[in-house]
Design a protein that fits this description.
Blueprint: E1 51-58, E2 61-66, H1 68-78, E3 84-90, H2 94-104, H3 108-116, E4 122-126, E5 129-140, E6 143-153, E7 157-162, H4 172-176, H5 178-183, H6 186-199, H7 201-221, H8 225-257, H9 265-340, H10 347-368
Helix pairs in contact: 1-2, 2-3, 6-9, 7-8, 7-9, 8-9, 9-10
């Protein structure tokens, strides 16, 4: 799993890993693999949980409210045909979410999906409403993570649901001008939020590429268990990211081509652009997966080469020691004892010297063929 920014979308400082959704941990180059932190995060959340914010645009007038006044404005705006509305809920409690769903008249199954927040990346059409689930990716403290983002799109209304660690107002399209974005329709706001999320994927890919480059260099220099662990963590992260982004590519293909979804023809082109970004993203992910597999194969080849080198050196040592041991076995300890008492002639010392010379010749030959 991934808990899901080198930076969070829209350039916010990367928040700590959200403990709800653990992710594949990957140590940065030259470090050991890290584990999911269990201590409370030091960075404050982007939003407080159980909050609702409503933005309505009617006759050029923008209303931006939070809390109970936001629910009152939502009831009024939904009943006004000219109003365009964006409803944003952050980790709502069941009572707040039920009230929002009741006002928007959402299907019970759709309300249940929003409450569970344990969905895969998908797109569902229920009546005139479209349920879109995407994930924001991030990097913090040597760890890659993802966060689920839920959107419900209608002709005049957009509902967004997310964790406290993601702030939709911080995305660069929304910072440019909320009135301008909502004036182009709730579908444009949906694209603005998703596009910023997709753009934040690419710095993550850059980190993955740097990690693979570092591992390729280290495999040549050394091969140890720590390096192997980092390779497996890297491959796992690539698979998890691919699992998230591959369905999103097909989702945006649908959003940019199907006329029955609640997206205007003018804004469909923007979703096509996001689809193109996801195609490039998945292509790069496939390339990185192949590079990671090649790096693993290089690691295994290095280990096998090192083992062969060790076996050659052990064979060389065996040749030298076995020659000396054979001569020593012929004479036995009794002959050596007599020679040291000077009871024997020079024959023992001649044979011993000959054994040492032969051993030296064997060492020289083995060194010349690089066996020792």
């Amino acid at each position: 799993m991934i808990d899901r920014s080198l930076s969070e979308p829209a350039g916010r400082p990367a928040p700590p890993v959200h403990p709800d959704m653990p992710v594949s941990s990957i140590a940065s180059a030259g470090s050991k693999p890290t584990t999911t932190p269990t201590t409370p995060p030091a960075t404050p959340p982007a939003q407080l949980p159980n909050t609702v914010r409503v933005v309505s645009l009617e006759a050029g007038v923008l209303r931006d409210l939070e809390g109970d006044p936001a629910l009152t404005e939502l009831r009024r705006a939904v009943a006004t045909p000219e109003a365009r509305v964006w409803v944003d809920v952050c980790e709502p409690k069941p009572g707040l979410l039920a009230e929002v769903c009741r006002i928007l008249e959402l299907h019970p199954l759709l309300a249940e999906d929003l409450a569970e927040r344990d969905q895969r990346a998908k797109i569902d059409q229920i009546g005139e409403l479209l349920h879109v689930v995407v994930f924001s990716l991030g990097f913090d403290g040597g760890q890659y993570y993802d966060r689920e983002l839920d959107f419900v799109l209608g002709k005049r209304v957009l509902l967004s649901g997310h964790s406290r660690w993601w702030d939709p107002r911080a995305t660069h399209h929304i910072r440019v001008g909320l009135a301008q974005a909502l004036g182009r329709g709730p579908d444009y706001v949906l694209w603005a939020l998703c596009d910023d999320t997709i753009d934040a994927y690419f710095p993550i890919l850059d980190r993955l590429g740097d990690e693979i480059d570092a591992l390729e260099d280290e495999v040549v220099d050394r091969a140890d268990r720590g390096l192997l662990a980092r390779l497996f963590e890297l491959k796992r992260a690539l698979i998890e990211i691919r699992r998230i982004t591959a369905p999103e590519r097909e989702m945006f293909n649908v959003l940019s081509s199907r006329e029955e979804v609640p997206i205007s023809a003018d804004n469909r082109l923007y979703f096509r652009d996001a689809y193109d970004h996801l195609i490039r993203l998945t292509d790069e992910l496939d390339t990185y997966r192949e590079l990671a597999s090649a790096t693993l194969e290089a690691y295994l080849s290095t280990v096998n080469n090192n083992l062969s080198l060790i076996m050659k050196r052990l064979t060389g040592v065996t040749v030298v020691v076995a020659g000396i041991g054979a001569v020593a076995g012929i004479f036995g300890m009794s002959e050596a004892q007599a020679a040291f008492r000077a009871d024997e002639g020079p024959g023992f010392w001649i044979v011993t010297l000959g054994s040492v010379i032969l051993a030296a010749i064997a060492v020289a030959i083995l060194r010349k063929v690089d066996w020792i």
